[in-house]
Write a structure and sequence with these properties.
Elements: H1 2-9, H2 14-44
């Protein structure tokens, strides 16, 4: 993820941007959702 973040800072190539977008949608976003659900579950137990 950090490598993708670093690439986006100076990416002006549409193909590279689309590849990074696809990795975000397919990999990073679901993982962040999972983490959020775990946090909310723990928070609601207290």
């Amino acid at each position: 993820m950090l490598e993708d973040r670093n690439l986006t800072v100076h990416t002006y190539d549409e193909e590279t941007a689309l590849q990074i977008y696809q990795r975000i949608v397919a990999g990073y976003a679901p993982e962040f959702k999972r983490i959020l659900q775990q946090i909310l579950a723990r928070w609601s137990d207290q």
